Structure formats: C-alpha cells, structure tokens
C-alpha cells in the first residue's frame, strides 16, 4: 500500500487558518485533496494535523467530509506521520505532502513513487536537489526507513522535520532524486502569506473552471504570459 500523508494545520503566524481559505469556492485543503486523489499510485490518503485546540475545527470539518484524519503531538511531526502509517495497515511507502501547496501535482507524485519503487530507494524526492517550484515537493519514504527514524531520532527539533534523519544519512538510507527538465527552483508557489493566497486564487480563477485537473505546465504557461504575475514567473 502506498499511503499519502498530507500535513495541515490552522496555526500560521503569517496566514492563520490558511487550510480553510477558499480557492474557487472550496477550502484550500479540499482543493489539495482533490488534486492528490488524481495520483494513480496512491492507495489511501490521511490528513495529519495536531491535537491542539486550534486544529479542532479543521479536523471536524474534514471528518464531516469523509476524510480520514490523524491527530498527534503538535511538535512531533515525525511521530504523527509514523502513526498514520501504523493506523493505515500494511504500508510499504509513505508519500509526505505539505498543507501550504495548493498546486501539488499528481503527475509528480506518480513519478516520485515510481522512482522509489523502481530503484528500491528508502527515500525518493524532488526536494534535495531542487529544480521544481517550491510548493511542488514530494517525498516518498519506505515504511521501514520511517519506522527506524521514528524509533531512533532523539532531537526534539529534528522530529519537527520527519524526513531530516533520512535525508541526512544517504550512506545508510538509499536515496533517489527526481529532477525537472529545467531549473524552476527560484519559483515559490507555496501559500504562506496573504500575497501568496492572492496569487493562488488568481491561478485557480484562471485555470480551474476550464480544467480542474490543471498541472504544473499550465501554471508555468499562465505566469509566463501574465505581467502582473511576474514575480512568480521564470
């Protein structure tokens, strides 16, 4: 089983409640899930959020929409994701995705999963050697590597980043890297500020009505053709 875990929370200092900010009439978290479900390689999706009161509304909303939610310690994201894998059943790989990425690309998810499977990597991603826009990161971790990291990592700060221990030990954990045909790493499509949200809304307003399944290439074509979106263009 290939399990996708989407990290999401409401507590952001720069953009509080961003998971529920609307894109084309629906909360951003639902738009992300809509896109993730288009990935052919995934067996199941769980949203991982914290057990803090600030995330009660988010968890309740998702459950009401039939979404599987796991809640765990706010500062121990490594444990939270490991427990998602335990709860899901017999999982071979976990796909880690982040909640500030409304343009998550199902094609990239599938490519990264297939890279992990074909190479036997413990960790496959397009993150270590960045060539894709920020906000399109995909990390695929073998269940065995995740269990090892969760059991051995003792640094509380390191446990905030659930793949840090695996990424930092390429001699111990086998890595594979997905690279784009061009270097688009200067682009940042994450939603962290009100300006980022305005950008995301402009892209969804332009592309979603005609093609809800728009991909990275469609966004690139749009931002490169619109001068008012220039700060996000290549």
Please tag this protein with its features.
234 residues, alpha/beta, two-stranded antiparallel ribbon, 8 helices, 9 strands, 35% helix, globular
Describe, in plain words, how this protein is organized in 3D.
- This protein has 234 residues and is an alpha/beta fold.
- The protein is built from eight helices and nine strands.
- The protein has helices at residues 28-36, 56-64, 77-88, 106-119, 143-152, 164-167, 194-207, 216-225; strands at 2-7, 22-23, 26-27, 44-50, 69-72, 93-98, 123-125, 139-142, 175-177.
- The strands form two sheets. Strands 5-4-1-6-8-7-9 form a seven-stranded mixed β-sheet, with helices on both faces. A two-stranded antiparallel ribbon has the order 2-3.
- Mean pLDDT is 93; it is low at 230-234.
């Amino acid at each position: 089983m290939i399990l996708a875990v989407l990290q999401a929370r409401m507590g952001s200092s720069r953009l509080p409640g961003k998971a529920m900010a609307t894109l084309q009439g629906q909360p951003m978290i639902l738009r992300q899930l809509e896109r993730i479900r288009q990935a052919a390689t995934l067996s199941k999706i769980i949203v991982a959020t914290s057990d803090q009161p600030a995330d009660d509304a988010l968890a309740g909303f998702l459950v009401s929409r039939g979404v599987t939610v796991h809640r765990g310690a706010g500062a121990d994201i490594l444990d939270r994701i490991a427990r998602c894998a335990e709860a899901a059943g017999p999982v071979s790989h976990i796909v880690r995705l982040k909640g500030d990425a409304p343009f998550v690309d199902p094609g990239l998810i599938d490519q990264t999963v297939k890279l992990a499977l074909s190479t036997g990597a413990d960790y496959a991603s397009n993150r270590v050697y960045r060539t894709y826009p920020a906000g399109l990161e995909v990390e695929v971790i073998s269940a065995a590597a995740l269990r090892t990291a969760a059991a051995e990592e003792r640094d509380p700060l390191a446990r905030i980043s659930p793949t840090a221990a695996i990424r930092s030990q390429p001699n111990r954990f086998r890595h594979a890297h997905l690279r784009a045909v061009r270097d688009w790493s200067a682009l940042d499509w994450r939603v962290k500020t009100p300006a980022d949200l305005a950008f995301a809304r402009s892209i969804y307003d332009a592309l979603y009505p005609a093609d809800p399944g728009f991909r990275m290439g469609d966004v690139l074509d749009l931002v490169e053709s619109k001068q008012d979106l220039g700060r996000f263009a290549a």
